[in-house]
Design goal:
Order of helices and strands: HHEEHEEEE
Helix content: 25-40%
Largest sheet: 6 strands, mixed
Radius of gyration: 17 Å
Number of helices: 3
Strand order of the largest sheet: 2-1-6-5-4-3
Strand content: 35-45%
Length: 150
């Protein structure tokens, strides 16, 4: 039995909305430095490669430690609010049930008393998402910063 074009489009639209919601919740946790909650959005054996000067973190505990370590190292004496803005999302379901995504990310940094935020950095993010007990989880994330990819 084949799926009709309208049914396939509706299924992809629903998946797209689900992935968008997943990323919104994930980014809120990351921006609030709720490291364990952010790490819980990854598969137990998930991989998070986000910075050229850090090796990939593997597993939820290591991902949470990396998020805390990065924020402490980078912003310990610099009170900031970071916001991750994801856009231009491409969602591609795979035959094995995984979902490959690619999107642009801007990290916006605001400092107290400064009305104009700084964008640092601009990135491309490539993920492999899977389902764990019916919930989306990130199996693998690779972040490539634009200023390093020329």
């Amino acid at each position: 039995m084949t799926t009709s074009a309208p049914a396939a489009t509706a299924a992809l639209t629903g998946l797209y909305a689900e992935v968008q919601q997943f990323y919104a919740r994930q980014a809120h946790r990351l921006d609030a430095v709720r490291a364990e909650e952010f790490a819980a959005t990854f598969a137990p054996d998930g991989e998070f490669e986000h910075s050229p000067d850090s090796p990939p973190a593997r597993g939820r505990q290591a991902i949470a430690q990396e998020v805390r370590r990065f924020n402490e190292r980078r912003f310990a004496d610099d009170p900031v609010q970071r916001r991750h803005w994801f856009n231009m999302l491409d969602v591609r379901p795979q035959d094995d049930g995984s979902i490959h995504t690619e999107f642009y990310a801007l990290v916006v940094i605001t400092r107290p008393g400064q009305a104009v935020p700084v964008i640092a950095p601009s990135c491309v993010v490539r993920d492999v998402l899977i389902r764990e007990d019916g919930q989306l989880r990130t199996l693998k994330r690779k972040v490539t910063q634009d200023h390093l990819s020329f």
